[in-house]
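It would be a great kindness if you could assist me with a short task in structural biology. Thank you for your consideration; the sequence and its tokens are set out here.
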Amino acid sequence: MLRGSLAVVLLLINTLVLIGPMMVVALLKLLLPGAPLKRACSVVVMWIAETWAEICKGVFALLTPTHWDIRGVENLRQDTSYLVVSNHQSWVDIPALVQAFNRKTPYFKFFLKKELVWVPFLGLAFWALDYPFMKRYSKSLLEKRPELKGQDLEITRRACEKFQGIPVTVVNFLEGTRFTPAKQAAQESPYRYLLKPKAGGVAFVLAALGDNLDALLDVTIVYPQGKPPGFWALLCGRVERVVVDVQTRELDPALWRGDYQQDPAFRAEIQQWVSRLWQEKDQRIQALTQQHGQPDGEDQKFSNRAT
């Protein structure tokens, strides 16, 4: 409790100290005329965010025993753009990505739930960083108001247009939500360790940024202890090891040369490409799980339910 409380205090101080300068630059970005000045403000905002993230890494290193087992990031660059796809199990996934990519690639952009804009301080920071906020609609609402269908994809397209011309790392959790055995069962997911991926969002990122993207960074996050830990467990020092496996893949220009919404054949090609990625990721999670002695298959599901 003492370790976790101290970590919370230090992270909060870091946020409060840097949120002020970020808001000032964000306001200048809003008011100053001309694309060059606005772009300069974006660079400063991202530098502040990278500094905040680096200090957070320092807090974790000082107070927690967690070993961040980062693989495959040796040749990454900050002067180009990447698309990151990752599995999603826990809020600890975010610090894991910070550990892997901060100041090795351009500062990343997440697609966030719209409700997060109201989180004190962090909501303002997300706005200043041009994070796209997604609004999800239930199936029942879409049945009543079919005109809302596809609006999340349109938000994706408009957000990605802001990223053209500047180095950026766009992060997409293809599952759309955190993995749990209950969600896996409800979906009847064909994967052992993953939920079904959603291809629409990544298709629109590729359509908007494809020619500017240098590579796909295929990220697999594994928690060898078994059940994915919560953020509080991380702060309290109860997470021994986190494996972040990064595989750099070339992107075929054919992936963004079609119309995902209007062309059924092209849509099927993108969905098949995403399915292949997910099949390989499922196998990679199994290999990493067995490598570190984590419970496998049905044993892991039983362990998660028991916990």
Notes: The two ends are 20 Å apart (CA to CA). Strands lie at 67-71, 81-86, 108-110, 112-113, 133-134, 169-173, 213-222, 241-249.
